[in-house]
Specification:
By secondary structure, this protein is an alpha/beta fold. Helix content is 43%, strand content 24%.
């Protein structure tokens, strides 16, 4: 699976404003709802679904990374958004460190294997120190998206 199959350039947020988990989920929900069509993709629906998933356990996986994900009824394909925080976000990560890289994944309700493959791919990418550094050093939306394009091409 290629990340660029599910991540569109307009859903790369190079400068997240949020400082905590709840406002981060809200910021992503707003961005996703503005760019997705359908009754089940309202800002409040997306935010509620992501928040409910976080109650099961934090998706802050450590090393400055969080991968919030949830299933949504009405989606027909996987949708992703990526954001970067310069100052760091209090996200209840497993290592108790601030999160600076956030990759959100919205999954069709009836999806099984595809979303697990996507989560595995995202996790592998974001565990790579050099790739994380390239995302932290990117200057704008285009350079961040191009980092994903280059990594997809190399894999």
């Amino acid at each position: 699976m290629r990340i660029t199959d599910i991540l569109r350039p307009e859903l790369v947020l190079p400068a997240l404003d949020s400082e905590d988990k709840a406002s981060t989920l809200r910021e992503f929900s707003r961005a996703l709802a503005e760019r997705l069509e359908g009754a089940h993709t309202t800002e409040s629906t997306i935010e509620s679904a992501l928040a409910a998933r976080e109650k099961l356990g934090s998706t802050g996986v450590g090393e400055g990374v969080a991968i919030p994900h949830t299933k949504l009824p009405g989606l027909t394909s996987l949708v992703a958004a990526f954001g970067r925080s310069k100052k760091g976000i209090a996200f209840d990560a497993i290592d108790n460190q601030p999160v600076r890289l956030v990759f959100v994944l919205l999954v069709p309700e009836d999806s099984a294997g595809a979303h697990l493959k996507a989560l595995a791919r995202i996790s592998r990418l974001l565990k790579d120190n050099d790739f994380r550094r390239s995302l932290l050093d990117g200057t704008d939306r285009e350079s961040l998206y191009e980092a994903f394009v280059a990594r997809d091409a190399a894999s």
